[in-house]
Amino acid sequence: MGIVSQEAIKQFQTLMDQVDEPLKRTFQNVHQGYPLETFGRFLKAREWNVAKAHKMLVDCLNWRVQNEIDNILAKPIVPTELYRSVRDSQLIGLSGYSREGLPVFAIGVGLSTFDKASVHYYVQSHIQINEYRDRIILPSASRKYGKPITTCVKVLDMTGLKLSALSQIKLLTIISTIDDLNYPEKTNTYYIVNAPYIFSACWKVVKPLLQERTRKKVQVLSGCGKDELLKIMDYGSLPHFCKREGSGSSRHSQNGAENCFSLDHHFHQQLCNYIKQQSLIKQPVHPMKQGSFHVDVPEPAAEGTQIAKTIESEFNKFGNGNGLSDSLDDLKINGD
C-alpha cells in the first residue's frame, strides 16, 4: 500500500471516529474486525477521494440503520416452499474456495428467471447472502488462512441467456445498485463462462462504459472455463457447470450436494439453519410470519442507468433488427 493510500485511510479513519454511535455499531457488522481494509474498499470505489468515500460509507451506514440490515439474517423467507421457489429461480451458491482462500460464488445468470416471487423477496435473499458472506463466510476464511480475506470471486454461468432476460433488467439494476453503494469492491474477479453469442455482442458495447477498475475484474473464459479456473482453485471448488464441457448450468441436479444452486447443497442448508437460529434468538416469542423484508433502494448511478439502457438496446437489436433469435444461445465464444 502506497504512502498516498495510507494517508487517505488515516484521514478516513479520523472522519469515521466522529460519526454517531448507531453508525459505529452497524459499522462493526460491515468491517468484521478489518476496518482499514473496509476504508480501502470504499476509497477504491471513489477513486481514493476521501470526502466522497466518507460520504459513501456514511450513506451506507444510514441505509443499514434505516432498513434494519443488521437484523436481516434473523428474517427467514417462509414458508420453505416459497424459499425453495426463490432458490430455484435466483441461481446462486458457494462452490468452494480459491487457493488463496477467497470464497467462490457461482451465479446462474442465464437460467435465473426471477419469476417465482415478488421483487422484495429476491432483494431480501440477495442481501442475506451478502450479509452471510461478510459476517460468516469471510471471517471464517480469514481465521482459517491466517490473513484478512475480505473479497470473493464470482463465476457467472451464461448458459441459457435469452432475449427474455430483458424482463430482468429492472431487478438486476436494483440489486446492482445495492451492491455498488453498500457492498463496494467485494468481488475480486468475475469469470464469465458458457457465454453465448448474444453475450459477446452486448459485452463489446457495454465494456467501454465500465470504469477501468471494473473492466479489469471481468474475464470472459472459453467454454465452461475449467482449464483457466483450475489455475486458481482445486477441482472440488469448481462450480458444477464448469466441471465438463457442454454441461452448462441447471436449476435441478440429481445430486443436490454437488449443485451449489440447490437448496439441498450444504451452503444453503447452513445459511437456512443460521437464519432460522437467529430468528429464534431475536424473536423467541413471536411466530415467523410470511412477508418479505422491504428495503429502500437508492436511485442507480448514471453509469448504471446508462449500462442498463445499453444492454436493453442491444438485446432489442437482436430481437428486432438482425433477425436473430434465442437459438443464438447455442453459439459459444472464446475468451477475449
Automatic annotation (TrEMBL):
<dbReference type="Pfam" id="PF03765">
    <property type="entry name" value="CRAL_TRIO_N"/>
</dbReference>
<dbReference type="Pfam" id="PF00650">
    <property type="entry name" value="CRAL_TRIO"/>
</dbReference>
<dbReference type="InterPro" id="IPR036865">
    <property type="entry name" value="CRAL-TRIO_dom_sf"/>
</dbReference>
<feature type="domain" description="CRAL-TRIO">
    <location>
        <begin position="79"/>
        <end position="239"/>
    </location>
</feature>
<dbReference type="InterPro" id="IPR001251">
    <property type="entry name" value="CRAL-TRIO_dom"/>
</dbReference>
<dbReference type="InterPro" id="IPR011074">
    <property type="entry name" value="CRAL/TRIO_N_dom"/>
</dbReference>
<dbReference type="InterPro" id="IPR036273">
    <property type="entry name" value="CRAL/TRIO_N_dom_sf"/>
</dbReference>
<protein>
    <recommendedName>
        <fullName>CRAL-TRIO domain-containing protein</fullName>
    </recommendedName>
</protein>
